[in-house]
Design a protein that fits this description.
The strands form three sheets. Strands 1-2-3-4-5-6-7 form a seven-stranded mixed beta sheet. 18% of the residues lie in helices and 31% in strands. The chain has 226 residues and is an alpha/beta fold. The radius of gyration is 17 Å and the shape is globular. It is built from five helices and 14 strands. It has a single domain, classed as Ribonuclease Z/Hydroxyacylglutathione hydrolase-like (Metallo-beta-lactamase, Chain A).
Length: 226
């Protein structure tokens, strides 16, 4: 199984709720790169998208016009520029994120602590390892989007975890950034979202991050060897 899919996409919808939708363009890939669109206060934001036939149909089913695509992780340029150009909107990038805007073939707008009706949360901003990540929180709608620090893809979770912390952050999970947030649902940049009782799943992931790290690393080693 390839880490990242390529060629003709085979879009699969993974998350559906009144104000949003999530999809995986290449369902067979190991990384399970998930894309989302979220409607907040009449604006439709497309988050870290991987393009595929059928994406525009998903967007058309949600309330509001596309206001922009958003890069929430410095490594998640993905197809944000392609979809932005198609809808004649900018790509939005956090005002503190470096090395991304100049690599996007589309107009770029910067945002700070808020993006429309969404609260922007700095999850990580480090040079060692290079990692710049912003989460987006629709407090009224109860939806939290975290692109990388937590996820549900198989390489992020032990068998007992519903939501897991990224392997590289297991020993130092982002408790300061994400602790205390109690969303109804958690959407992820890798894997399907947690659609109910998201605050409980998030708290469990952060609290068990270090304790469950050996199990996750052992699982990863077995899969690599076997």
């Amino acid at each position: 199984m390839a880490m990242k899919g390529s060629g003709d996409a085979d879009l699969a919808v993974i998350d559906e709720f009144d104000d949003g939708v999530g999809w995986i363009a290449y369902p067979g890939e190991t990384m399970e790169r998930a894309s989302h669109a979220l409607s907040v206060d009449g604006d439709l934001w497309v988050l870290d998208p991987v393009d595929a036939d059928g994406v525009d149909d998903l967007l058309a089913d949600l309330d509001g016009e596309v206001a922009g695509t958003v890069v929430c992780l410095d490594r998640h340029k993905r197809d944000a520029a392609v979809i932005a150009r198609r809808h004649d909107v900018p790509v939005y990038v956090p005002d503190w994120m470096t090395g991304v805007a100049t690599k996007l073939d589309a107009p770029v707008e910067r945002f700070g602590r808020r993006l429309g009706g969404l609260r922007a949360i700095t999850v990580r901003d480090s040079s060692i390892p290079p990692w710049q990540e912003v989460g987006l929180y629709d407090e009224d709608g109860g939806t939290l989007y975290v692109p990388e620090a937590v996820g549900t893809s198989s390489y992020m979770r032990t068998g007992s975890e519903q939501l897991g912390v990224h392997p590289m952050l297991r020993l130092f999970p982002p408790r300061r950034a994400l602790g205390g947030i109690d969303p109804e649902r958690v959407l992820c940049g890798h894997g399907a979202g947690v659609m109910e009782d998201g605050g409980r799943a998030l708290a469990a992931a952060l609290d068990g991050s270090r304790r469950n790290a050996p199990g996750l690393y052992a699982k990863t080693l077995r899969e690599f060897l076997g």
